[in-house]
């Protein structure tokens, strides 16, 4: 693997993670799954969203390669797809950011 390929792979992986963390429900799912695998219905209850919303968000996270399904008879649990993801999320939680009150909200946002 060349350095350019590795850089593109890393960029793509971080972009997928950024996309996932860009939605509060997906972020909540990832944070919940860092503790233990869980069933969609339990995640929906925990995050106070409908089961349809949970299904859609889990499909997105599967597509990004961040979670994987664990079939268990008639039910399916979900877990983080990579063992390094939970410690990485823990480290991100330790980052302290100064957020401008008007940033990333409303018409004055320069992030969009």
Automatic annotation (TrEMBL):
Signal sequence, start to end: none
Instruction: List each copy of the HTH arsR-type domain by range.
Output: 6-100
**InterPro entries named among the record's database cross-references:** ArsR-like_HTH (IPR011991), HTH_ArsR_DNA-bd_dom (IPR001845), HTH_Metal-responsive_Reg (IPR052543), WH-like_DNA-bd_sf (IPR036388), WH_DNA-bd_sf (IPR036390)
**Xref: Pfam families:** HTH_5 (PF01022)
Gene3D superfamilies for the chain: Winged helix-like DNA-binding domain superfamily/Winged helix DNA-binding domain
- Please give the PROSITE patterns that the UniProt record associates with this protein: HTH_ARSR_2
Check the record and name the CDD domains matching this protein. HTH_ARSR
- BP-aspect Gene Ontology terms: response to cadmium ion; response to lead ion
Could you state a single Gene Ontology molecular function term? Answer: DNA-binding transcription factor activity
Xref: NCBIfam families? HTH_metalloreg
Query: What is the official name of this protein in its record?
Result: Transcriptional regulator, ArsR family
Q: What is the lineage of its organism?
A: Bacteria, Bacillati, Actinomycetota, Actinomycetes, Micrococcales
